């Protein structure tokens, strides 16, 4: 989920199995022979070298139907969920880890349960988004898309109150809208063949949140825009690490993203990093834990990443001004994490009742009006405004660049483990 700073998928088979990769096994050439017995190793090796540092695709057990429905904790009854992509830290840090390996492994063992919660949430995210990438088509309403995604994710995460479920509303922002749009009741917006749609959704287990997003298009003319943003996100992941300055990550992201251009209708546009959007640290039941990961140079010089932290590395690119503002009807809301206002301080019985519903069903996780409708809440807008006016709940309107431009987003969740960096949301799609 995006936060403001003051934040063409590949087609996969209907039923696919990804195998947990081993870098040693992947690097071995597969020797085949011709009818004359001549081995053909060199051609395979040359092809392998064309892909620089390919992502490691986590293991995905096979679902029995084209639409995934089996909960992840059922697929993995031992509760040993697949790791994400594992990346070594920079050499200096790696040497320090090797010198203290027993201690670092012991530290990881203490929080292994947290890692497993994140990995279960990540596997639910992977299988949900890959289903949506196959399923989504022009002509569908944005409500249909969100409901299909959320229904699938709820089944896969095995939704159970605040113990497991969706971490925030499905963002499906179109074109110049960069983030925080999901349809409210009565919204009849239809996905068009020339639209650029950002799919941003989250899953959680015991409040351990996976925040991960991609951009979906049907017209290949947007490919350079998507590539710029995806490469920028990969740059942020590569540069992230223990004791790394956040401002340095932002400078690297901007340099990569703004090296791209996209041609639209005969005019060239430099892809601009949206300077007032950013990535962020994540904590339990808290989508933004206080640190921001800029996507442009500048910013605070002293803030650094620390061992054990979880981050959403997300980047946004635009063919417009590269700056977003609040616009359109609000759909996203979230209880203020630091609020101390008790129910008894509210005068309105309806506001008290609504806050009780929010506390019970969402706590400090984000929600949307569609989800209140789903819970049977009616005529709640004045009460919701009252909670916002009192600072108990915060509203997050859609974030928009100038009309007529196009924006794209890619995002992954990473864990700065004591021994390595884990891109826990990595999948075979991106």
UniProtKB/TrEMBL annotation:
CDD domains: MetAP2
InterPro entries found in the cross-reference section: Creatinase/aminopeptidase-like, Met_Aminopeptidase_Type2, Pept_M24, Pept_M24_MAP, Pept_M24A_MAP2, Pept_M24A_MAP2_BS, WH-like_DNA-bd_sf, WH_DNA-bd_sf
Keywords carried by this UniProt record: Aminopeptidase, Coiled coil, Cytoplasm, Hydrolase, Metal-binding, Protease
SUPFAM superfamilies registered for this protein in UniProt: Creatinase/aminopeptidase (SSF55920), Winged helix' DNA-binding domain (SSF46785)
Residues that coordinate or bind a divalent metal cation 1: 200, 211, 411
Binding positions (a divalent metal cation 2): 211, 280, 314, 411
Keyword Coiled coil: yes
Coiled-coil positions: 101-128
Stretch list, region Disordered: 1-71
Biased composition (Low complexity): 1-22, 58-71
PROSITE patterns in the record: MAP_2
Location of this chain's protein in the cell: Cytoplasm
UniProt enzyme class: hydrolase
Record-stated family: Belongs to the peptidase M24A family. Methionine aminopeptidase eukaryotic type 2 subfamily.
Name this polypeptide is given: Methionine aminopeptidase 2
Organism: Folsomia candida (Springtail)
């Amino acid at each position: 989920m995006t936060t403001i700073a003051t934040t063409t998928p590949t087609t996969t088979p209907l039923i696919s199995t990804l195998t947990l990769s081993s870098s040693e096994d992947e690097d071995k050439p597969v020797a085949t022979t011709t009818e004359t017995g001549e081995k053909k190793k060199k051609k395979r090796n040359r092809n392998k070298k064309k892909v620089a540092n390919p992502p490691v695709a986590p293991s995905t057990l096979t679902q029995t139907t084209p639409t995934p429905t089996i909960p992840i904790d059922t697929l993995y009854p031992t509760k040993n969920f697949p790791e994400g992509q594992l990346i070594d830290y920079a050499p200096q840090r790696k040497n320090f880890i090797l010198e203290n390996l027993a201690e670092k492994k012991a530290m990881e063992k203490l929080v292994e349960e947290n890692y497993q919660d994140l990995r279960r949430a990540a596997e639910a995210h992977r299988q949900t988004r890959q289903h949506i990438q196959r399923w989504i088509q022009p002509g569908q309403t944005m409500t249909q898309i969100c409901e299909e995604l959320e229904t699938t994710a709820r089944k896969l995460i095995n939704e159970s109150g605040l113990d497991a479920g969706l971490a925030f509303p499905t963002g499906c922002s179109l074109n110049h809208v960069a983030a925080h749009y999901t349809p409210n009741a009565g919204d009849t917006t239809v996905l068009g063949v020339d639209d650029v749609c950002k799919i941003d959704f989250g899953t959680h287990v015991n409040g351990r949140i996976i925040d991960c997003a991609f951009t979906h298009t049907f017209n290949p003319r947007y490919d350079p825009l998507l590539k710029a943003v995806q490469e920028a996100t990969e740059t942020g992941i590569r540069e992230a690490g223990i004791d790394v300055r956040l401002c340095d990550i932002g400078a690297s992201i901007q340099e990569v993203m703004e090296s791209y251009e996209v041609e639209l209708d005969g005019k060239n546009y430099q892809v601009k990093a949206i300077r007032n959007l950013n990535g962020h640290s994540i904590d339990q039941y808290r989508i933004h834990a206080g640190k921001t990961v800029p996507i442009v140079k500048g910013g605070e010089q002293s803030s650094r990443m620390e061992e054990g932290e979880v981050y959403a590395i997300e980047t946004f690119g635009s063919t417009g001004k590269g700056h977003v503002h609040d616009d359109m009807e609000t759909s996203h809301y979230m209880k203020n994490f630091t609020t101390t206002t008790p129910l008894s301080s509210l005068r309105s019985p309806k506001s008290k009742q609504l806050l009780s519903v929010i506390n019970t069903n969402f706590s400090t996780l984000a929600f949307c009006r569609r989800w209140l409708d789903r819970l049977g809440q009616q005529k709640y807008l004045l009460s919701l405004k009252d909670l916002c006016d009192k600072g108990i709940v915060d509203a997050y309107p859609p974030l928009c660049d100038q009309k007529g431009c196009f924006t794209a987003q890619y995002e992954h969740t990473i864990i700065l483990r004591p021994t390595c960096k884990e891109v826990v949301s990595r999948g075979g799609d991106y």
